[in-house]
Amino acid sequence: MDSHAKIEDKMPAHIARYSVHDVRFPTSHSLDGSDAMNKAPDYSAAYVVLHVDGGANGHGMTFTIGRGNEICCAAIAAVADLLVGREIEGLFADMGATWKLITGDSQLRWTGPEKGVIHLAAAAVINAVWDMYGKHLGQPVWRLIAGMAPDEMVSLVDWRYLSDALSPSEAIERLQDRASGKEARMLEMETTGYPAYTTSAGWLGYSDDKIRSLMRAALADGWTHFKMKVGGNLEDDSRRAAIIRSEIGPDRFLMMDANQVWGVQEAITNMDRLAEFDPWWIEEPTSPDDILGHARIARAVAPIKVATGEHCHNAVMFKQLMQANAIDVCQVDSCRLAGPNEILGVMLMADKFDIPVCPHAGGVGLCELIQHMSFVDYIAVSGNLENRVLEYVDHLHDHFLDPVRTKNGYYLTPQKPGFSVEMKADSIESYTFPTGNVWAS
Ligand SMILES: C[C@H](O)[C@@H](O)[C@@H](O)[C@H](O)C(=O)O
Ligand SMILES: [Mg+2]
């Protein structure tokens, strides 16, 4: 051991370097994940490892659907650079300040702010810091956050643009009101789990026969809520909806997802037609940025609910969607918003506005990450399961060291330390684009 190594040994645990990986899965071959807007996605992770000297590494990612993943990787490198040399205890001591450090660099901020590729990159890095924190404490992230005192939890959120809708002191009071049943709710989650719905059977690129057989398999597995894709040809949408409704019967829940393909009036007209299949919600009926458009659609299609969020790029957008009565269902995404801190801000606002949070998941790694936040929502924030279901998609879980587990249509609590996002080393290697053996051959 040389003298340099001796000095390094005595340094407090710190982030020594990072590595970024462009990992892509060729899901377009089977049209898994296909919808009216995203016709042939290759589910991809822009994946980062924060390498810690003297502690556990942190793994994180953001999600894309293929081309452009390399742009996220470049942005992740720019953001992760801000952390090199930082002592991990310092980062953990004030995770609210750490969030601001990662999202608030005065030069990088210009490329957002808080939106687009730079915010996806911030999500990847913040998810990695939370993974590192969970592993450092030996706890799964959901338990770590749900176990926080109200003021600590509220201090995670950047309130600058949110406090006109919900002030931090009111948020603390609301969490204090919920504190009494926390233990019981934690126990309930560990025994029963969190209710879920499946999208696996309803992708747009699947044949009618494939949809029918997947629906039957999902029914046999105990699922009660099903999402299908719409937004293609209206006749095709109606035919597929009729098949699905006849398979699941009148009492189970059917959700529809148009993935932004309609204009505002078109959404209203088309949902008038699809209403005969009794959808519970219509998701992304139009542009994710059109707050007033969503409000108009929501008024016109009620009692069908309007859901959105997988492309809602920050908490400020969610605030306005809520203030404008534009959404009935809030679909936060753990790779679109910048990690648990920002999601928590949205969950706290949703609780105040009495809007159920039914997160977006699926893709690759999204279920692994977001499940933690749904457990937090029920245990500590909303204390409510009414009208709440967390998305589940049955693809690519076996690439993770701590994959999600579901039973009878419920997510079971992860028990391993961290954020469940660590991918198997050989999966990273094989699926790295374009050099991994899956892509090179
Ligand atoms: C391209 C993706 O698979 C989307 O279709 C998917 O995220 C979808 O919108 C969903 O709600 O699961
Ligand atoms: Mg969707």
From TrEMBL:
<dbReference type="GO" id="GO:0009063">
    <property type="term" value="P:amino acid catabolic process"/>
</dbReference>
<keyword id="KW-0479">Metal-binding</keyword>
<dbReference type="GO" id="GO:0000287">
    <property type="term" value="F:magnesium ion binding"/>
</dbReference>
<keyword id="KW-0456">Lyase</keyword>
<dbReference type="GO" id="GO:0016052">
    <property type="term" value="P:carbohydrate catabolic process"/>
</dbReference>
<keyword id="KW-0460">Magnesium</keyword>
<dbReference type="Pfam" id="PF02746">
    <property type="entry name" value="MR_MLE_N"/>
</dbReference>
<dbReference type="Pfam" id="PF13378">
    <property type="entry name" value="MR_MLE_C"/>
</dbReference>
<dbReference type="InterPro" id="IPR013342">
    <property type="entry name" value="Mandelate_racemase_C"/>
</dbReference>
<protein>
    <recommendedName>
        <fullName>L-fuconate dehydratase</fullName>
        <ecNumber>4.2.1.68</ecNumber>
    </recommendedName>
</protein>
<dbReference type="InterPro" id="IPR046945">
    <property type="entry name" value="RHMD-like"/>
</dbReference>
<dbReference type="GO" id="GO:0050023">
    <property type="term" value="F:L-fuconate dehydratase activity"/>
</dbReference>
<feature type="domain" description="Mandelate racemase/muconate lactonizing enzyme C-terminal">
    <location>
        <begin position="208"/>
        <end position="304"/>
    </location>
</feature>
<dbReference type="InterPro" id="IPR029017">
    <property type="entry name" value="Enolase-like_N"/>
</dbReference>
<dbReference type="InterPro" id="IPR018110">
    <property type="entry name" value="Mandel_Rmase/mucon_lact_enz_CS"/>
</dbReference>
<dbReference type="InterPro" id="IPR034610">
    <property type="entry name" value="L-fuconate_dehydratase"/>
</dbReference>
<dbReference type="InterPro" id="IPR029065">
    <property type="entry name" value="Enolase_C-like"/>
</dbReference>
<dbReference type="InterPro" id="IPR036849">
    <property type="entry name" value="Enolase-like_C_sf"/>
</dbReference>
<dbReference type="InterPro" id="IPR013341">
    <property type="entry name" value="Mandelate_racemase_N_dom"/>
</dbReference>
